[in-house]
Amino acid sequence: MNRFGLFSLTAPIVHLIGLIVLVALAMAGLAGTEFALSRYLANAIGQLAAFAVLAISLDLIWGYLGILSLGHGLFFALGGYLIAMYLLKHSFEITGTVPDFLQFMGWKEFPFYWDGFEFFPYALAAAVVITTLISGLFGYVSFRSRVGGVYFAIITQALVYVAMLLMFRNDTGFGGNNGMTGFTVLFGWPMGTSGMITALAVVSLLVLAGVLAGCNGLVKSRFGALMLATRDDETRLRTMGYETLRLKLIVWCLSALIAMLAGMLYVPQVGIINPRVLSPELSLEIAVWVAIGGRGHLVGAVIGALLVNAVKFWLSFAAPEIWPFILSGLIVLVVLVFPNGLMDLAKFKLMRPMGPKRLAADMGEARP
Amino acid sequence: MKLARFVLFLVGLVAGGPLLAPTARAQALDRAGLIGNLCGNASAMGEAAAVLTGLAMSGDAADRAFAVPLARAVIDRKLACDEAGAVLTESGLDAVTRAPRPAAGEARTPVLSLKNRATYELADAALALRAAPEPAQRAAALKTLERRPALIPEGLLDAAAASETDAGLKADIETLAQTAALNAADPAARIRALARIADTPSRRALTKVSALTTDPAYAASPDFRAAVDDATLRIERGIAIGDVLATLYNGLSFASILFMAAIGLAIIFGLMGVINLAQGELIMIGAYVTWLVQQGLRVAAPSLLDWYLVLAIPVAFFVTAAIGIALEASLLRHLYKRPLMSLLATWAVSLFLMNLVRVVFGTQNLQFETPFYVTGGVPVIGDFIFTWNRMFAIAFAIVTLALTWGLVRRTPFGLNIRAVTQNRDMAACIGIPTRRVDMMAFGLGSGLAGLAGLALSPIYSVNPQMGQNFIIDAFMVVVLGGVGTIAGTVVAALGIGQINVLIEPLWGAVAAKVIVLLMIIAFLQWRPEGLFAVKGRRK
Amino acid sequence: MSLTALLVDGLTVRFGSFRALDELSLAIDYGEVRAIIGPNGAGKTTLLDVISGITRPKQGRVLFDGAIDLTGLSEAAIARAGLRRKFQKPSVFEGLSVRQHIAIGADVGFRTRLDAPALEDRVGEVLEIVGLVDQSHRLAGELSHGQKQWLEIGMVLASDPKVLMLDEPVAGLTDEETERTAALVRALKRPDRAIVVVEHDMDFVERIADRVTVLHEGRTLFEGSMDKVRADAAVVEVYLGR
Ligand SMILES: Nc1ncnc2c1ncn2[C@@H]1O[C@H](COP(=O)(O)OP(=O)(O)OP(=O)(O)O)[C@@H](O)[C@H]1O
Ligand SMILES: [Mg+2]
């Protein structure tokens, strides 16, 4: 009963969700007062929340389904590009600013496929449909031919790499190597004000809380048990009558959609999107957040994303050139010493569902 | 334009008349007779000019050296004719014997008629082109000749091209030779020239030949017309063949690099199920080691500098192999049966190595010497040049393939690798030290990456990020080829290499990558295990 | 309902040039417990792999219920048709509890179709049968080898299969555990169910099997009761001869 049931009130995930909501409410309540966070800090919190959502999306398929994607940046970028299209088109409608990249290409007007992007619902629907289509198609052909493990990881990496090359081209109508920037208006409100920054951060936190709660509900449900079963022994589950292809496809698309959502939250806050979010390195970094936080734990994924990115934010001021060395050191440490990331540190029965023995084993990998 | 050509044609007919058969020449040069003619009347001077031009084309080098100052001296009026013959007034030498002597008695300076002036200028330029010591002088002479292509005697330029040592000048001479021959006055010579041009088809030749369709002779002479049409056809065919060969050749060299980058990956993947994301950086390090060897030679043994590419082979191999072994022993050893984690671990290594090199050497491209054996190439047909730098990579890959194949198929170590690849537990049971095999195989795979870096250094730019450019293609080769098979890797590298270069000119490099990826995904639908899967028991 | 549950007809499976099954034919009836024995590598597991859809044969068919050709169906479709199988190597989901295993086995689908109390009843019933009531909340990864074997049996029988295939159910068990397993298999015997057991333990086979098929090098060497098998010269030759 316990395992199929929803979460109990003492579970760490409930505390985390509560904390996130609390921070969001505090930020909203204090906005405009002298206790309000600095613009920089508020913005950083908002971006971190978007990264945490991204980490959850990867944890869902890697930690719970055993499928490692090294191309999740693709879906993140999809969300980012599509919201950027909305922002540019919307800003253009209101202020008449022509985006840089159009001027750069010497184009007089937006390409036809930008039609309708000035309406947020349309942009949102387009993002959902396109993400579902791309992830669905790719997932279907991969899972159908039972491509998994390292093969899948490598092919997703190639996918995101190819997408990056594509977006680097200037003639695609998506900003080329400079990307898209210069967003001025969101929902009719000017961007860049403290109010807007706080609002975006609060929304990101609330979305994070929602995604966390939703995913927790999913992984604790019967469906979640089937996800773990697929991860542990897919053939076994198939020979019990379950179409694991469908299950994997559903989770894969869901994960892609969550990553897309993260991209939609992220781009208005940094104010730019360019093909570099499609670099294989970023996608690999997501896996590192999850690995450091601990795969197969939603709380771990969130904490991993927050921790790694907080250090990265800080170092990008202090000493940007040593970041790669720190990152590689962290990875080696986690891989060799703490195979379950921070969850190894937080042994104090924080994460019961996995059990100690399971913790020691490497999750979701092909066994001999 | 047309008019100018026509005028040139007429001038050629008139002025070139006496020069048409200058090749008929006495076996040994009658030096005194020649000087006599130089001092003679207009027609004798004309004959002398013909002899001089003839010397420029054939005859021995001593006679040519003898003739070089003469035409110039006549043009510049620096020749004093007297009873004893003539004196070159500038140097004060006897024109025949080249012994110093003053001009005797009543010296007379021969005057050039208008017609003879042109022929003497031609003779002077022809001689300078053949015999002047400085390339710049020869180039100037060529410029003079270029102004009157119709006047240039047949054979001069061919002879000049044959003896020319400067590559750029040589190409210019050849170009002019074609133009000259095509514009010769004699229709038969033109037809012969067409046939010769068609023997070495190129785009430049095509432009020249197709320009002849506007030539008056094209409309007038059916023979000429047929010759032009035939030459056009042959050149076009040659260009097409050349293009195909060039594409295949480029594809082959790209495939060679891909193969070298992928074979190490494939061996390691087959053996341990680990994809080494640092393979690209090992390639990069191979290239950097090559560069270091070059720099070392520059200091220690400059005479061997040209051979750095060869001398670096063992160094690049062993340095990268040592890195690979260290990597396996310190990191991957602990990640058995956790292939996804080892993916992350090797990525960390890749990040580390790339940034280390960036910090130590900087981000700029390295400068490599190009030794003679990777310089230039042999033009084959059309615009296809069999370049040595690409041939180096291809030959290198073939040798590597042969050695790797021999190692895996014919040595006890190779037998161990194959045994562990097929069934690790069984291999361990019969006493194969699987851990040692893993370590050595990882060293081998890494060493091969180092060699790939060496092989590509004459072709691609070398910088800390270079590994990234090859690694994804190399993965695709492994995925397509199947786990741990050499044959699969070869076929997949050839396939992906060729497809890339085939698509690139049509739709661009990005499209090539997209299409290759889509094809691989489609291919996996049909054969999820790759081309040459090793059959093993379902685990 | 036809009497024949499974009709294996001219089955050939090749791995490279090696024939794991060589035009194998046999019939298994409802209501019987059929043991399949044979030396290592005889093709027993391969036969179960083909029946459960994991391996595609080169040739031949497997007819279920006299009508459905299983060789074209997916593993999941075969399982939903009512065939379940326990693997030779205990295959359980290490991250799930014992109870979750049984629940997954009892009711196929991403959501439960049985209502909660009905599912609970069924799970309790099966836990009772395989004797894992006390372990119901433990993770499968923590169980002993014997318990894993039983858990897997419980998981496959929870769905009330028409054909139950057990690949070496007593390998690695103690005598007492083997005893209990034999009793369990006999208890599972029903007129509308065929049970196929692959085993090397001859005493166990003798206790449970109605009929025995001896496989050798992918072909049927002998078929009959255990007594006759013991007496057959060819079988003795195969087992002892090398
Ligand atoms: N996927 C595979 N690839 C190659 N050979 C295989 C494969 N599967 C099975 N084999 C071979 O087929 C033969 C039959 O194997 P199978 O597992 O069916 O034997 P078995 O009768 O179950 O033996 P055991 O009693 O040891 O379990 C063996 O020689 C085995 O090595
Ligand atoms: Mg077996």
UniProtKB/TrEMBL annotation, chain A:
<feature type="transmembrane region" description="Helical">
    <location>
        <begin position="196"/>
        <end position="219"/>
    </location>
</feature>
<dbReference type="InterPro" id="IPR001851">
    <property type="entry name" value="ABC_transp_permease"/>
</dbReference>
<dbReference type="GO" id="GO:0015658">
    <property type="term" value="F:branched-chain amino acid transmembrane transporter activity"/>
</dbReference>
<dbReference type="Pfam" id="PF02653">
    <property type="entry name" value="BPD_transp_2"/>
</dbReference>
<keyword id="KW-0812">Transmembrane</keyword>
<feature type="transmembrane region" description="Helical">
    <location>
        <begin position="245"/>
        <end position="266"/>
    </location>
</feature>
<feature type="transmembrane region" description="Helical">
    <location>
        <begin position="150"/>
        <end position="168"/>
    </location>
</feature>
<feature type="transmembrane region" description="Helical">
    <location>
        <begin position="65"/>
        <end position="88"/>
    </location>
</feature>
<dbReference type="InterPro" id="IPR043428">
    <property type="entry name" value="LivM-like"/>
</dbReference>
<keyword id="KW-1003">Cell membrane</keyword>
<dbReference type="GO" id="GO:0005886">
    <property type="term" value="C:plasma membrane"/>
</dbReference>
<keyword id="KW-1133">Transmembrane helix</keyword>
<feature type="transmembrane region" description="Helical">
    <location>
        <begin position="286"/>
        <end position="310"/>
    </location>
</feature>
<feature type="transmembrane region" description="Helical">
    <location>
        <begin position="40"/>
        <end position="58"/>
    </location>
</feature>
<keyword id="KW-0472">Membrane</keyword>
TrEMBL record, chain B:
<keyword id="KW-1003">Cell membrane</keyword>
<keyword id="KW-1133">Transmembrane helix</keyword>
<dbReference type="InterPro" id="IPR052157">
    <property type="entry name" value="BCAA_transport_permease"/>
</dbReference>
<feature type="transmembrane region" description="Helical">
    <location>
        <begin position="441"/>
        <end position="462"/>
    </location>
</feature>
<feature type="signal peptide">
    <location>
        <begin position="1"/>
        <end position="26"/>
    </location>
</feature>
<feature type="transmembrane region" description="Helical">
    <location>
        <begin position="506"/>
        <end position="526"/>
    </location>
</feature>
<keyword id="KW-0029">Amino-acid transport</keyword>
<comment type="similarity">
    <text>Belongs to the binding-protein-dependent transport system permease family. LivHM subfamily.</text>
</comment>
<feature type="transmembrane region" description="Helical">
    <location>
        <begin position="254"/>
        <end position="275"/>
    </location>
</feature>
<keyword id="KW-0472">Membrane</keyword>
<protein>
    <submittedName>
        <fullName>Urea transport system permease protein</fullName>
    </submittedName>
</protein>
<keyword id="KW-0812">Transmembrane</keyword>
<keyword id="KW-0813">Transport</keyword>
<feature type="transmembrane region" description="Helical">
    <location>
        <begin position="307"/>
        <end position="327"/>
    </location>
</feature>
<feature type="transmembrane region" description="Helical">
    <location>
        <begin position="391"/>
        <end position="408"/>
    </location>
</feature>
TrEMBL record, chain C:
<keyword id="KW-0547">Nucleotide-binding</keyword>
<dbReference type="InterPro" id="IPR003439">
    <property type="entry name" value="ABC_transporter-like_ATP-bd"/>
</dbReference>
<dbReference type="InterPro" id="IPR003593">
    <property type="entry name" value="AAA+_ATPase"/>
</dbReference>
<dbReference type="InterPro" id="IPR027417">
    <property type="entry name" value="P-loop_NTPase"/>
</dbReference>
<keyword id="KW-0067">ATP-binding</keyword>
<dbReference type="GO" id="GO:0005886">
    <property type="term" value="C:plasma membrane"/>
</dbReference>
<dbReference type="GO" id="GO:0005524">
    <property type="term" value="F:ATP binding"/>
</dbReference>
<feature type="domain" description="ABC transporter">
    <location>
        <begin position="6"/>
        <end position="242"/>
    </location>
</feature>
<dbReference type="InterPro" id="IPR051120">
    <property type="entry name" value="ABC_AA/LPS_Transport"/>
</dbReference>
<keyword id="KW-0813">Transport</keyword>
<dbReference type="Pfam" id="PF00005">
    <property type="entry name" value="ABC_tran"/>
</dbReference>
<protein>
    <submittedName>
        <fullName>Urea transport system ATP-binding protein</fullName>
    </submittedName>
</protein>
<dbReference type="InterPro" id="IPR017781">
    <property type="entry name" value="ABC_transptr_urea_ATP-bd_UrtD"/>
</dbReference>
<dbReference type="GO" id="GO:0016887">
    <property type="term" value="F:ATP hydrolysis activity"/>
</dbReference>
